[in-house]
Amino acid sequence: MRKWLWFGFLLLLGCCLFGEVFLVHGDRWFVLEDSQLAVLPTLSFSVAFHGVTNTSDENLETENWRGIPLSVLLGFLGTIPPDATITLIAQDGFSREFPLGVLRGAGSFGTPVLALEREGEPGQWLTFFAQDGQVTNEDMLQELGEAFSSFHGGQPSARGLLVKDVRYLVVNWDGDLEALHEQSTHSAQMIEQQGEEKEEWSLSLSGAVDARIDPSVLQEWKERGVHLEERVFARKSTERRYDVLPLWMLVAMVDDLHDEHPFSFAQQLWEDGYLLTLTAQDGYAVSFSTTEMSTQALFVAFSEEGEPTWPKVVGEVSGKFWVSHLQEIDAQVPRAQEDAPSFTLAFSGPSGSFSRTLEQLRESEFFVEGPGSYTTSAGTRYTNHYAGVDMGALLVQQMGMTASDTVEIIALDGYEMSYSAEEILDQSSGTWILAFERDGMPLPQDPGPVRTVRIGEATPNVDGHNSLKMVKRVQVIPVAYRPFQLQLSGLMQTTLDRDQLQSGISCHRQRVVYQSKENSDTYTGIAVWRLLAFVDDPAYAPHRQDEAILSYNQELAAKGYSVIFHAVDGYQITLSSLELDRNDAVLVANAKNGSDLESGEWPLVLVFDSSAERLPEGIKKVKQLAHIEIVLP
Amino acid sequence: MMYKRMYRSVFLLCTVSLAMLGATAWASAELWCNGQPLALPNQNELSWLFGQPDPEEAIAPFPFACLFPLMEEIHEIVLQLEGSQLLLQEENLAEKVWNWSACLSSGKLVVSIPTLGENPVQWVRLEGIACTEKELEIWLSREGVLELREQLQRFADWFGVSLHILEIPDIPARLQAYLRAQEPLPDVFHVESSQLEELVDFQAVQGLAYLFSQDSQRLQSLQPNMRDAFLVNGVPYAYPFYADTQMAFVNRELAGRDFVLQDETDLWELAARLGSSDAWACSWNAYSLYWLVPFLRGFGMDPLLGCTNTVDVQHPAVSQAIDFLLALRDQGLLLPEERDAMTSLFCAGEVALILSGSYMVPQFERLEMEVGMFALPWNSRGGRWFSPVLDCKGLAISARTKVPVLSRRVIDFLSCLPVQQRFCEQLRKIPARREALDRMSLPGELQQVFRKSLRTGFPLPTASSYGIWKSVFWKILRFVFAGQMSVTQALQSAQQLVDANLSY
Q1: Strands, E, within B23-156: which ranges?
Q2: Chain A environment of B237 (Cβ under 8 Å)
């Protein structure tokens, strides 16, 4: 009784969902509606089937069919095991099972087809296309064997392979019709919901300016009296009715600068010619020169046969211009301004912060240019004509900088450099600028388009570490810039100033956590062994020779020498090179917990990671470090 | 009912008559386009079209579309078979017929239609709109420009169109310059998968999803990893053409005829074979991320980029891979050298094994060197293959083309089986079309290399973050190999630099 109830329900459902086919493979479900089936490849053919009584071709009845090869439908279900069977289930529950290979059309007796028309009548049948126009009983038995062949009254009948009103195509069906139906009802509801939640279109326009229209804009236009014209256009011999606007009307919005009259069409510009590109949502694009297209040839449709649709280009033109799902119209007219990506430079200080694009800086009163140069630590000098903004003037006027402040500059890669504001303001050796042009061309975007350099009539030269590249942020700190030096002695003598040390720390930044009795503090600096490289041999200091030559003399460190750390007040400790060798846990630091050192430690402190496994014997913190000395045995 | 019976009788009569007529005309199938008869090309003409040197040699199945003029749209095609007639009316037929294949078998025309199998046909009638686009500009680069130029010229002559073919060494740079200057762009151009995102950002290329969305056979005909190489945010922006693969070349005189590269331990075996010889066991450009990538994969970095195209330089596989290479170098097996130096040393017999690209195969063949060819080996330490990079080349259509139909036809032609087979055979490339590789005549070991590389290899990411990573590593790896930075330090610095560039 229950089955009969299901049968009745299925018939009812069939009436509601006629035209849908459900494809099922395990948890994968596909529902193909009428409209989806209509765009799948179809073929038309004639074929005759042997019945029970046919033993020759004499009484064969040939019929005309049009339909979709089943292999196309199987393609929706992904990979199917080769030994799978496929069951086609009709609306009334009748089913027929086939080996996968047969439905893929691999056999010789015919290509299975889901027919959508039989003798011109709509419906959904399983049929077979045979090249020789016949599906014989012999073909069937040979191809399908007795297990899958059709018999009527004990006699083979190829005609019995036909399945009428096909509703489901199921891989390895377990025979549970009820479960199948429950899922199909659910899927149908989902489709209905999806239909209600159709994606809203949006059409962007670009040209001298940019614009965008969507259904709400269109509605607004209609309310303001812009009428869509009803036009009929034919495509592939089929006429359709569209509500359209002429394409030129949309182009008018972006073809020139017209704040007051956005729809004023630059007719002359169109006639003079520019490239117009129409791009679809799926990426298809076609361009044409406006000189080759009449303004009356192309239209944008917003509804088709009375139903709202995605914008679509229509007209009495070649099919290549019929762009469905139109997403973009681009008119290659002179732009209002070049829209190259703008790099933004950030400024901050006690009086606030702001950002400026390079274009804004170029237009500003601070823009200056002139020759300048810098010399790398390896000794190469680069001289060019630079243009940018006068850093001192800008920071004074916009940030209220005074000569007693410090200017900190931060690069894209985190490199930091501090300048005294006094030095920035000192014009005697040239003008410090934030340069973004070199020899008339923008500095390259990669690695970064801004660098600090000094310019002036005398082509001032600065050390490479002072000419900071990839500048991203400029900070004014209301603390006086205090210069300091660290003396290094050993097999060479050298003195590093604040800038050089800061440069080294930026490049080789290390952090350690120093645990005192009271506190746990994080110090930032450079590993001591890197500084020893300046004085551990008589020939090679960092950055002074080819990169292939290592400045750090590890061989000497391994032999062992003493390193004496002197503080300003005369305090000193001695450590062994054996324990400092490539030991990143022992630093000369210039910052504590992210800030400058406190006065008791400033300017530099010898500090170490308290929890490091490898610490030199006798190490202690050395505040106000002034001198590092190597003493050979 | 009466009418129906009559109709069926008439239809049957027509079918039988047509079948008889067809039988008499069987030796030369008839072709009709918009009511006009066309001549069926013969074997010699087809051999010429596809550049086959021996006209007697059986030609690979060719696109059915080559039997007809270039079509902008095809409304219907009728194929008369032995006992029935096939009428095809569907969307995008004009595109799909480039994926149908035809062949002449004993003078008979056999048309193979996806899902419908092979159909010997007596006549074909096609109705549609002929393509009116007659001129196109195409930019080519890299190897094989001469061969492609000749092939394209034959296409132009066959279909009566004019192609302006230019060789442009750096196509992305030229495209950007032309875009800025609002100069006309070429209609079709070569593109490398790793350059694609940049071109998409510049709006230089158009999406090609429309080619695949209604023709699943197109997708299935292509090598999956080459097909995926041209996706940017899931959208195909170029049609795969061919790929080069990273591979190992072995100097047989140094390594011995029986040397086989199966896993990384064979490198030590190779070193042992060299004994006290001055030759190095192996060499490649260890300074380049491009050559580090197979090792990253071999130690488990898969995928290379994060899901939002982030770069995790501090992934454990990176330090493992670098440590592995440093160990090879420190044990005197690996000589890091850039490409030209490495190749010179290899040819001079001073290095037994190099890692290079399959583009080198024709050069070694010209030199008549006795070279063994191997796919990248298994990494028994990492339990994975050292996966080669597949350098995929494709064909893109400009976002500003005025001739989209002709552009597609040119790409369809270059992607067809006989053209792919011949071009890739000559240049030792891996064809994008699956079937072409099966048909290619290659030295046995190269065929194996290609097949294995397709299984284990992968295309470079299209995201620009890979380019940033590569640029940063170019310096960082030098520091590491020069001993100026520890691996840990180098990777920390590299991570900072990459992140800074990405945030910018």
Answers
A1: 30-33, 36-38, 62-63, 71-80, 85-88, 101-105, 108-113, 117-121, 123-130, 135-140
A2: 283
**Cis, peptide link before residue B303, omega less than 30° from 0:** yes
Tokens standing for residue A589: 């630091």
Q: Which A positions 395-414 lie with beta carbon below 8 A of chain B?
A: 411-414
CB pair distance less than 8 Å for B206 and A285: yes
Q: What does the alpha-carbon distance between residue A486 and residue A495 come to, in Å, rounded to a whole number?
A: 6
Cβ-based contacts of A448 with chain B (< 8 Å): 504
**Secondary structure (DSSP) of A111-172:** EEEEEEEETTEEEEEEEEE-TTSEE-HHHHHHHHHHHHS-EETTEE-GGGG-BSSEEEEEET
Is the CB of B210 less than 8 angstroms away from the CB of A134? no
Task: State both tokens at B223.
Answer: 């090598």
CB-CB under 8 Å, A236 with B399? no
Q: Which of B115, B405, B497 should one mutate to test binding to chain A, selecting the residue with the greatest count of A CBs within 10 A?
A: B115
Query: Which residues neighbour B373 within 8 Å (Cβ) at sequence distance 6 or greater?
Result: B247, B248, B249, B250, B361, B443, B445, B446, B449
Q: What percent of chain A has pLDDT above 90?
A: 24
Task: Please indicate whether residue A430 or residue A224 has the higher confidence score (pLDDT).
Answer: A430
Per CB-CB distance under 8 Å, the chain A contacts of B134 are none
- Name the β-bridge partners of A285: A279
Selected residue of A37, A72, A284, A293 to mutate for chain B interface (largest B Cβ count, 10 A): A284
Residues A75/A105, Cβ–Cβ less than 8 Å:
no
Distance, in Å, from the CA atom of A412 to the CA atom of B488, rounded to the nearest integer, reads: 21
Mean pLDDT of chain B: 87
SS3 at position B229:
coil
B11 and A CB contact within 8 Å:
yes
What is the spatial distance between Cα A442 and Cα A507, in angstroms, rounded to a whole number?
A: 26
* List of residues 6+ apart from B80 with CB closer than 8 A: B18, B22, B121, B122, B123, B124, B125
* pLDDT confidence bin for A377, thresholds 50/70/90: low
Which residues in chain B touch residue A285, judged by CB atoms under 8 angstroms apart? 206, 397, 399-401, 404
Report chain A residues whose CB lies below 8 A from the CB of B497.
413
Cα torsion angle, A232, A234, A240, A246, sign: negative
- Mean model confidence pLDDT for chain A: 82
Per-residue pLDDT of A251-262, as tens digits, reads 988 887 665 556
Closest CA to B420 of B236, B237, B223, B229: B223
* H or E element in which residue A249 lies: helix A247-251
Q: pTM of the predicted model, to two decimals?
A: 0.64
Q: Reduced to 3 states, what is the DSSP secondary structure of residue B346?
A: helix
Average pLDDT score over residue span A52-81? 75
Token pair recorded at residue A88:
């086609």
Contact A466, A417 (CB under 8 A): yes
What single DSSP character describes residue A540?
Answer: -
Q: What pLDDT digit, counting tens, does each position of A142-191 carry? A: 888 888 888 888 888 888 888 888 888 888 888 888 777 777 777 666 65
- pLDDT tens digits along A572-581: 999 999 999 9
Flag whether the ipTM exceeds 0.85: no
Question: Which among A315, A313, A327, A306 has a CA at the least distance from the CA of A214?
Answer: A327
Tell me the two tokens of residue A407.
């200017």
Residues A355 and A474 sit within 8 Å (Cβ to Cβ): no
How far apart are the C-alpha atoms of B228 and A63, rounded to whole Å? Answer: 44
Chain B within 8 Å of A283 (Cβ-Cβ)?
yes
Q: CA-CA distance, B45 to B229, in Å (whole number)?
A: 35
